[in-house]
# Entry
Amino acid sequence: MTPRLSIVVPFSNVERYIEACLDSLARQTFGDFEAILVDDGSKDGSGDAARDFCGRDPRFRLITQENQGPGPARNAGIAQAQGDYLAFADGDDLVPRHAYEIMVRSLDETASQIAAGNARRFNNTAGVRQSWSHRLPFALDRPATDVYEHPRLALDRMVWNKLYRRTFWDQYRYEFPAMWYEDYPVSLRAYLDAVTVDCIAAPIYYWRERESGESITQHKLRYDNLADRVASAEMILDLIGRAPEAHDLVHKHLAEIDLVTVVQAFAAAADDELEPLVELGRRLSSRLDPRIVAAVPTFQRLEYEALEAGDAELLRRLARHRADGHPAVPARRHPARPWRYESQYPGLRDSRLPTDLYRLPRAELEVRAVTTELEWTAEALVLRGTAEIAHLEDPGLTVRMSLVCGRRSQRLRVTTTGAGFETRIPRSMLARLPGWASSAWISVELRSGLVRRRGHLGPGDVQYSLGDRVAGRWIQPVRTPDGRLSLQVRSDVPEVTGAEVDGDRLVLTGRIPSRMTAPTLRLARSAGDVQVPLRRQRGQVMDDFVAEVALDDLIDAVNPDDPFLDRTVLVPRLHDGDDRMLLLATGVRHGVLSPRGDRVISLTRSPAQYLNLAEGPLRVTADRVEVAGDRITVSGPRWPGVAYDRITWRRFLPNSDDGVDGPSRLTVDDHRWSADTDLADLAGGENWTLFAVSYAVQTDSFMLPALPTRAGPFALRSRSGILHLETD
# Structure
């Protein structure tokens, strides 16, 4: 019988990852598929692993070819595909269990030609996080839309987060070119041709990155690779004329991503490579809309203008400046026009470029004010952080801050030391916020000489801020989408005030608004909600409740929503008619709960302090960090059946998935483990991650409000729930 779905999987030299990729496909809840694996000339054991997998699952079959690149490999797979729908996956990535079921159901309901969904980036070091390039195109569900109505779709370069109707694919005769960056031209052309597209906000693809991060590799900066990147960009620029609505977005995207990548190659290029690189870069820069390029930041504008001028030596200096981490360069007053500020980037007055290009526009002399520490005292919410006007060095900077709610603004007292500040928001001031207020934020005004700038205070690295009750309302600091530190005012909302394990049940106690007529508690997950009985004791404004969750009802090892961490986050919500309300964790202070066989149920909290439950594999977990001088001690509960023979800080080699471990002293007793490290032993690396043999140690989310903090020469931070020691 012909399958409904064909999944084409090209791969080459991914022996370490191919088994996990294929397993994520085999576990799909939509099982009516064939997977066509295309071995594109692998030199390692990838082909053998794929062949073994095909022998175990008849839905998988393997074809081989000499190495020709991902485009021809995909074309070869498409030629063998028989399904009504067509999808793609790369051999080192993962597909969530419900992904194809969600997309097939969407196309069946809307009759669109394409379903496309959100994506996550992942690796052991950084955990799982939102893919930046898919954040805005797939922020919301948008059934039956198109690229003209939703122009941000034109920034979705990838082919693997989509499902295509095969009749649509064949009608337009799509074919991948034999080059790198081959998927963007095909994806964009398909978006332009489609009558409607279904946008899905749920993550339907997990995109792997190197453990060492998105560092620049020699392969990425080779001339032939860059030539393919430019050729792909030229195809995009030829196509985007069909969608004027997306013109500015695409030109800006190519200027900020692809053109910058070409310039980066100048940092290590040999002298005889400079001229060909200049010509290659000018092929792209000459096609970009000058109006769009004129609006990019000054440094990127200099890279563009240096290409246009053919100044290879300046391009090399700019590239090396960026490769050094793009260190901040202070601005200086123009010698003849003191009301102007010039950036001191490479090339000022000793290159072919006019000095006016180095003039900093007003927008770049912006307020940069971030929080580094947040603390509730008996009298106030205390915020500490740093504030500066970008590019200006002024130890005498004047800092003013105000609490803003609607049109109402109240001045705050600020003390400063250098670039550091402390401000206190009295509880009495928070108590006087109007009853209609849902949030407030902190405005910042900075003055340096004649320069005055206004902006807002951002949350910085403070990710899991603690909230507190003020005059009967809960005040919760959170990060807003526009980068502000917002103080959300919550009243008359469900709260969890206690949680404990009683035998095989999790008992949640709390309060719910008395106005709710028939509330039910549900734990939401992709495999289906878990219904939880709710006992209620009436009050005047808030009712007390008790909810007992059978822990075994939460265990579902075969249906994890997250294919990398092998876990599911269940989101508790109170349903009352059309209302669905999250539960605020006001009285819960500890997260790890109960092992159940080889799985564990944990209480977690979101950055906005809403309660979640997580079900996942039983692994080493940290719930306490202590820093004393130049020593750091991390500890956590000991679970039966879990190996505690090696827990250490690890750093990864550049452009590699191989790491180096630092020495630490491990202590394990019947109840807890601890790893004690002398930070001097880690001085040879810039970024260390806590590992338990093969995986990064997950941290209890309730300990995260104390981070970041200083640890000897490092800053101790959490990235997606994983501990990092980073040099500033």
